[in-house]
Design a protein that fits this description.
Blueprint (H helix, E strand, L loop, with lengths): L9 H7 L7 E5 H15 L4 E4 L6 H8 L4 E6 L2 H9 L5 E3 L6 H8 L2 H6 E5 L2 H10 L12 E6 L25 H13 L3 E8 L2 H4 L8 H29 L6 E4 L5 H5 L6 E4 L1 H4 L16 E12 L2 E5 L16 E4 L4 E2 L9 E5 L11 E5 L12 E6 L2 E7 L10
Parallel strand pairs: 1-16, 2-3, 2-9, 3-4, 4-5, 5-6, 6-7, 7-8, 8-9
Antiparallel strand pairs: 1-10, 10-11, 10-15, 11-14, 12-15, 13-14, 16-17
């Protein structure tokens, strides 16, 4: 795997294969496969649905879905889902509501897509939009219904009297059993749609790092410990009550950071996971698991503006989310480098400083890791694949296939 000493040899390996251009994205298939095996081990038999936004490479989606323990894709937009179905995917849940009328009309005219794709809703206005956009198309697909899943909010609010004290993403407005039942009844009462699933993502557990030996780290661990029973109880109650109205095909929960606790819930039938396949920088700081760093981004040194400083061309791949230092790339190699505080990682240039900077020369490569798993694919047409001691090929990203979704 591309860890430790082997990073020193990566430039030579690429050069032997005729790959000299920078920036370059290199994916270590051995690390990717090891991560996939570990995620399945942690899930202990609960199927894993692959979060496509964490890969954005169709070949990698196909690779992991061919493994035991994996079933289906959790997509991020309806146009993406339609594209994936066109290329052979047969079970795609769109994780976020859609308001894209053109995509809805394409969905409603394609029987294979109607059979494969499930849309997410969390309020009746989304249902109204779906039905309005497709009102004239139903007879063309043999009476097939549009598959619908409900999203339940399982964020943690330990003191209901203090609405500002809340842990978790601002996602669905559906929090209670009564709200979930009311929305389920709305779906069941509408023509041309069918309620088939439910999703409840505990992002405050799955997506928040907790390994820091600091007061903040201790607080995060306490928050997770206290919130898990609330998540499990609310999810189980909603699933049981909605299941009295309609038989659900799936109940999706969790993420890479919560696999063990999500798998322990009897109400959950599948777990979402994606970032753990790649092991991005943000995933270096979980207490209970450590994925391999599978994706490396190489950028060139192009100038030496002062002693102790080397400047990279590009490198400013800042992760989405709350702007903070943890959204910067991680410098993977060589050791002994840091971002210059007055510039950090920039759009067209990134100065690096530290003991190793004086040893860098124009044309050398500095290897970075993105803070998030899927976002690098928006900057590269293809990933170079390394397996063992060899370059084993290339895989185009969504962008490399000419597909741009968000």
């Amino acid at each position: 795997m591309l860890e430790g000493r082997r990073l020193e040899d990566l430039d030579e390996l690429l050069a032997r294969t005729g790959i000299h251009e920078r920036p370059v994205a290199v994916l270590d298939l051995d690390a990717f496969d090891a991560n996939a095996a570990d995620l399945a081990r942690r899930a202990a038999g609960t199927p894993l649905r692959v979060a496509s936004k964490s890969l954005r490479v169709r070949g990698l989606l196909e690779r992991v879905l061919a493994r035991p323990g994996y079933a289906g894709i959790l997509a991020f937009t309806l146009p993406e889902a339609l594209w994936l179905v066109h290329h052979g995917a047969r079970d795609v849940v769109v994780a976020y509501p859609t308001a894209e009328r053109g995509a809805l009309r394409r969905l409603a005219t394609r029987p294979e897509a109607l059979d494969a794709i499930t849309l997410m809703v969390d309020e009746s206005a989304q249902l109204d939009l779906i039905l309005d956009a497709t009102a004239d198309l139903h007879p063309r697909v043999g009476g097939r219904r549009i598959r619908i899943a409900l999203e339940l909010d399982v964020s943690y609010a330990p003191l209901p009297g203090l609405p500002g004290l809340r842990f978790g993403a601002l996602r669905s407005p559906v929090r209670s059993v009564d709200q979930a039942v009311a929305l389920a009844r709305e779906v069941l009462a509408r023509p041309r749609v069918a309620l088939v699933g439910l999703m409840a993502y505990e992002g405050h557990i799955a997506g928040v790092t907790d390994a820091a030996a600091t007061p903040y780290g201790a607080a995060v661990r306490a928050m997770k410990r206290l919130s898990r029973p609330d998540v499990a109880a609310r999810r189980a109650e909603v699933v049981a009550t909605v299941s009295d109205l309609v038989e659900l095909e799936f109940v999706n929960g969790g993420g890479t950071g919560s696999i063990e606790s999500t798998a322990a819930e009897g109400a959950v039938t599948e777990i979402a996971a994606g970032s753990g396949l790649v092991g991005p920088g943000l995933f270096d700081h979980y207490r209970d698991f450590t994925p391999h760093a599978a994706l490396l981004l190489g950028v060139s040194v192009v100038r030496r503006p002062a002693p102790g400083v080397a400047t990279l061309l590009g490198g400013g791949w800042i992760a989405s989310g709350v702007p903070a230092e943890d959204r910067l790339p991680t410098i993977a190699h060589p050791p002994g480098l840091a971002f210059a505080p007055q510039e950090a990682a920039g759009e067209v240039q990134t100065p690096v400083i530290g003991p190793a900077a004086d040893a860098l020369r124009v044309g050398d490569t500095v290897w970075l890791r993105h803070a998030k798993a899927g976002e690098p694919a928006e900057h590269f047409a293809a990933y170079v694949l390394v397996q063992g001691e060899e370059i084993s090929g290339f895989l185009p990203t969504y962008r490399g296939e000419g597909a741009v979704f968000l």
